[in-house]
Write a structure and sequence with these properties.
Blueprint: H1 2-9, H2 11-39, H3 51-72, H4 74-82, H5 92-109, H6 113-117, H7 121-141, H8 146-179, H9 185-192, H10 194-204, H11 207-226, H12 240-266, H13 272-278, H14 281-289, H15 296-299, H16 305-316, E1 324-326, E2 336-342, H17 361-367, E3 371-377, H18 383-392, H19 414-422, E4 425-430, H20 439-444, E5 449-451, E6 464-465, E7 468-469, H21 471-488, E8 493-498, H22 522-540, E9 549-555, E10 573-574, E11 576-579, E12 587-594, H23 598-605, E13 610-612, E14 627-631, E15 636-640, E16 643-647, E17 662-671, E18 674-679, H24 685-701
Parallel strand pairs: 2-8, 2-9, 3-12, 4-5, 4-8
Antiparallel strand pairs: 1-13, 3-10, 3-11, 6-7, 9-11, 14-15, 15-16, 16-17, 17-18
Length: 702
């Protein structure tokens, strides 16, 4: 009873609780407002929630938010706990100061983890340790400065809390506006590339007014809520109240972490928007951070390895790691090959597939002159997924793309096959800095020469934004390089070109299309990307090598992957065509096809014989099995016939049946841009077995 009475009457404990209460109230209010705003965002295509679901969105959502602010309160707990005069007494003050100086020297000059991370991390680490050492030194040697500096530090800490809460609301809205979900693995991935991401934000949004407004709002809120609390730092003194509060807070923080983790695990309804709206973005970010690599065999439906391998061997007539020799009855052809992967080019942007805005006249025209695959599905929703698909011809792996992983050298890529087995020169062209998304390391270690922004002379750049040079400049560089290769003679060339302009901030040279670049809208990015592609093809027709060249044109992924279910098919449908007017007659292929099939189909058209490890198949073959592999960073989809099977990660420590955690949807195509997808009552286990065999063996072998 004495302890309870002291807790009740102790002014320091009451102050500690009051600050927490104010921050918790602010968090609950702004997060509730954010959920309301997200409900009316264009990316949120469905809000037909039941009464119980509305309660989940705002009720469980509030619990999640409260858990996060409880965990985040750790910095104020630490600040109050460490605020004591005792640490400045001899000899402890001098010892601590010496340790802080040593930490600064280590962070700044030694080879440590921050330098391995790269980017601005070493600079931030150096500045932070220097700041802590300087502040402690001033307080140590100038006793009169201690209280005002403590007051200032506490006030600054409270302002930072308010600023982070406000900033997070804004950034979550921006992320939802782009992807239709809370923070996920994409946000973690982008954190690594601070230069490009910050530059993209600077060019996409009126950042100065936004930041200015955010700082004004922060100042107003912080002053209104805490103006009477800044100076009460004398309440930080003493150890007894800290001995009472600290274990209580630690238990509360651990309980909050367990509860928000449990809530997130339970947010697995078929309605993605319901799951995302009740979630907390900060937790989702850190959850994704620790899940960037996912062990397939630990988390997904698994067959016996031998059984899975035998199923793939029977499917492909292969051995080992899916090795077989591809034969042909015709005479082999070795023309030049130009593979173009268009940034974020959804099929839904094209007039061919029902769009009436006339955004892609060049691409629509090329489709009428090419072998076009009208039901092609991308493997994922990131550029690295598209590059992985067309380069390695593999089903997507859970977690990070193979391109982003460390063990990616000397893989069985299309470039390696063409170079080592067919004598091609192989080049990857990118208009930006190819270190982004690890492209330089991946393509460089897989036998590609690389031409990126570093290889451009100043006179070759007429327009650029944070992502790189405009598509016109990039295509001109491709033409110049291929012209030189052709004149050098001796080898056919394979050029893989990745475009960049159809990406936020959607800026491009003025005067090319009817949409001004100052509008910074997606439709402008699409139209300019199409314009630059059409111009490139027209210029290529003037080159000596054109008649002996095959152009493969597709997209890396769609512009958005948001939908009511985990994998909405219409958000993965991409254009795909093979264009060589002097070589192939136009043809329309209606089969359901996968992005991994594009290059094997081309090789079959050219009657190439080669050793293959590809999971992709010849689409035009009579025995082609219509299927597609479609995935997010953790949900693995397999479309076969009229059924979409989705395998999601499940508790690794529990025993599962093959179909546990597996969802299947009956698929009916309503129009060129819409699919009706209804959950099936009974999961088809045979489809799950095939899906598992594909994904499991690809994971084992690659």
């Amino acid at each position: 009873m004495n302890i309870l009475q002291e807790i009740k009457e102790n002014r320091s404990i009451a102050f500690f609780a009051r600050i927490y209460g104010k921050l918790a109230a602010l968090t609950l209010i702004v997060c509730a407002l954010l959920r309301i705003v997200l409900l009316f965002n264009p990316q949120t295509v469905d809000t037909s929630f039941s009464a119980i679901e509305w309660i989940e969105i705002f009720g469980i959502g509030a619990i999640n938010d409260l858990c996060i602010i409880t965990i985040a309160y750790v910095f104020i707990w630490l600040y109050m706990t460490l605020c004591t005069q005792a640490k400045y007494r001899r000899p402890w003050g001098y010892a601590i100061f010496a340790l802080l100086i040593a930490l600064f020297c280590y962070t700044t000059f030694a080879d440590n983890i921050l330098h391995e991370y790269g980017s601005v991390a070493p600079l931030i680490g150096s500045l932070l340790t220097a700041l802590v050492a300087v502040i402690f030194g001033i307080k140590l040697f100038f006793e009169r400065a201690r209280r005002p500096m403590t007051v200032f530090g506490f006030g600054l800490l409270l302002c930072i809390y308010v600023c982070v809460i406000v900033f997070n609301v804004i950034s979550e809205y921006v992320f939802w506006d782009e992807f239709g979900v809370r923070y996920n693995f994409i946000a973690v991935d982008y954190l690594i590339y601070t230069n490009e991401v910050i530059g993209n934000i600077m060019e996409s949004y009126p950042i100065v007014p936004m930041v200015g407004g955010m700082l004004v709002v922060t100042a107003v809120i912080a002053w209104g809520m805490f103006r009477r609390d800044f100076r009460r730092v004398e309440l930080f003194e003493g150890w007894r109240w800290k001995a009472i509060v600290s274990p209580i807070y630690i238990v509360a923080a651990l309980a909050a972490f367990a509860l928000v983790t449990l809530n997130t695990r339970l947010q697995q309804t078929p309605n993605v928007y319901l799951n995302e709206l009740q979630a907390n973005g900060v937790y989702k970010f850190f959850d994704a951070f620790f899940k960037n690599r996912i062990d397939y065999k630990q988390f997904y439906p698994t067959l016996d390895d031998r059984e899975a391998c035998q199923m793939i061997y029977a499917e492909y007539g292969s051995t080992g790691d899916n090795l077989r020799h591809i034969t042909s009855e015709g005479e082999e052809q070795r023309p030049n090959i130009v593979l173009i992967t268009l940034e974020s080019m959804s099929a839904s942007f094209m007039e061919r597939y029902g769009n009436g805005e006339h955004l892609t006249p060049a691409l629509d025209s090329l489709c009428r002159q090419a072998i076009v695959f009208d039901n092609m599905f991308a493997t994922g929703n990131r550029t690295v997924r598209g590059l992985e698909a067309v380069t390695l011809s593999l089903p997507p792996c859970p977690g990070q793309s193979i391109i982003k992983r460390e063990d990616h050298a000397d893989m069985n890529s299309t470039g390696r096959m063409l170079k080592q087995q067919k004598g091609y020169s192989v080049t990857y062209f990118y208009g930006g800095m190819s270190y982004f998304d690890n492209m330089k390391a991946f393509f460089g270690s897989n036998h590609y020469d690389i031409v990126d922004k570093e290889n451009y002379s100043p006179d070759e750049i007429t327009f650029a934004n944070i992502w790189g040079v405009c598509d016109q400049d990039a295509y001109n560089k491709v033409l110049k390089t291929l012209r030189e290769k052709h004149r050098a003679g001796g080898q056919p060339f394979f050029a893989h070109v990745m475009s960049v302009s159809n990406h936020r901030p959607y800026t491009y040279p003025d005067g090319c299309i009817s949409i001004s670049p100052t509008e910074k809208v997606r439709s402008g990015g699409v139209m300019y990307s199409d314009y630059a592609l059409g111009e490139f093809i027209e210029k290529a027709k003037q080159e000596e090598w054109f008649d002996n060249t095959v152009f493969v044109i597709t997209a890396d992924h769609c512009a958005s992957s948001a939908g009511k279910i985990e994998i909405p098919l219409e958000k993965y449908r991409i254009p795909a065509l093979i264009y060589a007017p002097s070589r192939f007659e136009p043809q329309v292929v209606e089969k359901v096809t996968s992005q991994i099939d594009i290059m094997p189909t081309l090789f079959a058209l050219l009657d190439m014989e080669y050793d293959s490890h590809f999971y992709g198949r010849d689409i035009l073959a009579e025995d082609y099995p219509e299927r597609a592999f479609i995935a997010t960073y953790q949900d693995l989809g397999y479309l076969e016939g009229d059924t979409l099977t989705i395998m999601s990660p499940r508790n690794a420590n529990s025993r599962h049946g093959l179909t546990d955690g597996v969802k299947q949807y009956s698929v009916r195509k309503i129009s060129d841009s819409e699919y009706d997808m209804q959950p099936v009552e009974t999961v088809d286990e045979e489809l799950v077995r095939r899906a598992a065999a594909y994904y499991q063996t690809s994971y084992l072998w690659n």
